[in-house]
Each structure stands twice: as C-alpha cells, then as structure tokens.
Amino acid sequence: MKRIVNISGIMMLLMMMITSCKKDVRALDENLTAVSMLAAPADGANIQLQPTTNASEVFSWQKTVAEDGGLVLYELAFDKENGDFSNPIYKTVSDGGGVDGQITLTHKQLTKIAALGGIESSSTGKLKWTVIASKATNKKTASQSRILILQRPAGFAELPSALYITGSATEGGDDVTKAVNFKMLEPGIFEIYTSLKAGTYYLTDKPAADGKKFYIDGIVIKEGATPVTVSGDTKVYRIKLDFNLATQLEATEIQSMGLYMSAYNTEITELNYMGNGVFQSPVTAVEFYQFSWGRDERYKFAIHTPTAVEYFGSVNANNVSPVGQPASYFYLTLVSDSQWDNTFKFNPSADKHNVKVTVSFSSAGSYTHEVATL
Q: I need a surface site. Which of 63, 348, 360, 374 has the fewest CB within 10 A?
C-alpha cells in the first residue's frame, strides 16, 4: 500500500513539472514595411571607377521597422538597367552584419559589379540599385530604386592571383602542368624572365586545363584561349604585364648579361641563360684591382637589351664585405650606371681564384645571386 502511494506521488510530481515547463507559444510576427527612401548615391550619379586606389562609395537609406519592433536586416541589391530585382546580379548585406542602414563599397568591388552587369572595360554603362529589407522569411524590396552610371577604366575586374605561360613556344612546352610561373610584383602586375622559341603560347592563372586563359593582342591583354604565335630563333625576354590596365608594359629582349667589375670599368665575363630565369657564368678568374690604398673587389651586373644597358646591383650605395651577411645582401635591384655606387663586394677568398656566378630572376622569392669560389 505504501509503495502504491509513493508511485502515485511521483506521478503527480512529474505532471506538475511538465505543466510548469509549458510556455506560451506565439506565432512569429514577420510583418514589416519596405524601405521607402534611398539616400545616397543620388539617382543618376556618375562614378568614374578607380579600382587601383582606395576610393569607395557609401550607399545609404532610411531604415524601416517591423510591426513588432523586432530586428530588420538589409541587403543592397544591384541589377541591370531594365531589371526588376527578381534575380539581382549582385547582393550584399549592409554594414553591422546587415542591421545598419548603409554599406561602403570600394571601387574595386564596384568594378566587379559593373562587370557582372555587362559593362566592359574602358566603357560606361548603367546599373540600378535598391534595398531589400527582411525579417525571418519575409522580404520586401524598397519602393524605389536608383540608376548608377559607372565608368570602367581599362583592366580586369577580377585580377589573377597567379600567372603562368604555357605552350609550344615556352620552356615548359605544351604540358600545362609544366607552365612557367610569373613573379607577382604587386596585385595585378606580373613579370617573368624566360626564353621563347618558334611556336605558340598563352597565359593562364593556374597550371591546369581548367585555368582561366589570357592572350596578348598587340599590347592589350585579353581573356580567351587565342594562342600568340612566336617565330624566329630562341630569345630570352623580360615580360611585364599589368592586369589593372590590361596592358603589356614590357617585352624586352635580353641579349646578354655581363659581370661588371668597377675598378676595371668593364665586364669580365658573360653569363649564359640556363632556363627558368637563371643566368650562370662559366668558370671565371677573378683578381681584385690594386690601388694605393688597397685591393678593390666591387662588382655588379650589366644587362644588354636592343636599346640600352641596364645595371643590377645592391640597394646599398656603399657596401660592406659579404662575409657574415644575411641572404638579403645578395638581392638584386635596378641601379644606375655609376662605376662605383650600388655595387657588391667579392668575398676576400675570391681574389686570384676562379669563381662561378649564378643570377636568379626566378618567380620564387627575391631576385638574387650567389658567387661560388672554386
């Protein structure tokens, strides 16, 4: 009997707990009012895009309210001039995770949006923008929209993060997985020291068949798989491309490279091109020049092009001995033709010995060189 009473007590306690845990369940109020006023930019605003700068534009509007006073989220939407925002070309949430009544877009972002809207580089076109307010699953497009006139400069809206050259004319041949890598100097600007022979080539953003392809038409960079034809003998080139401007900045033939000793005011040997941006000297005898104050060991490099002689040396105008110096001591930069300035110094052990000098203009790391005493 006592056991039955205890069980009954437990059952009553459980029912009381279940009853006390019940909460009032109310339907979610998703009602809200559409945004009624856009603030900036003005209707018909004409923006000359400068994607390579820090320029930006603020889009703002008058916030709306939900009927229950709850949180409203906002999306800025873009569409083509004749679009109705049923399938916007681009959407993004406002600042503050979507709760603010504004958003700042950079000109780089606007250039990408212009491209999505069919506005080509070096041309002007119109898009429209509006704001979509939402609460839970309920979304309402603003009662007005505005036209935006965008002037795109030359260049690509989406800059490649890497660049390769491939094809029968290149050092890697037709196998795209062996494509030769450019060095990125800064976003959108690439440079390569490489040889080209008779054949064809194209550019790609990755060494794979599905990479985005580019080609050079005159000095203009264009997207597409059209091959560029090379004829004649194999030659070494420095090629520099700017995707910000869609322009080939340079395609300079490297006729030769010499090791220049300052005290003799001459090149004591010529470096041979080995491939992959690397030049190397034959075994070369080095003897420092005897001045009254001591022996001089200064040197730098001379690159001969069809129109000029360019010198590559040290960032330091007056250098120290390389003994005990970090790897950065040997980094190369374009310098003046001064006989003495921005030179390196041979290791003292090189005096009256043979050396082999290797210069690397490869895409991996800084342009640099090394001197091996034999």
A: 374
Q: Are 309 and 302 in contact (CB under 8 A)?
A: yes
Residues 316-333 have pLDDT tens digits of 999 999 999 999 999 999
d(CA 153, CA 55): 14
Match 């007590």 to its residue by tokens. Answer: 9
Q: From residue 110, how far is each of 6, 220, 359 by CA, in Å?
A: 74, 23, 42
pTM for the whole structure: 0.79
Answer whether residue 250 shows pLDDT above 70.
yes
- Does pLDDT of 105 surpass 90? yes
164-185 in b/e form (b: 16+ CB < 10 A) is bbbbebbbbeeebeebbbbbbe
> With 60 as the cut, is the pLDDT of residue 24 above it?
no
Alpha-carbon distance of 284 to 352, in angstroms, equals 10
Closest listed residue to residue 219, CA positions, set 242, 196, 199:
242
Q: Which CATH architecture has domain 38-151?
A: Sandwich (2.60)
CA Rg, the chain, in Å? 33
Say how far apart CA 329 and CA 339 lie, in whole Å: 19
Q: Which of 63-72, 97-106, 267-276 has the lowest mean pLDDT?
A: 63-72
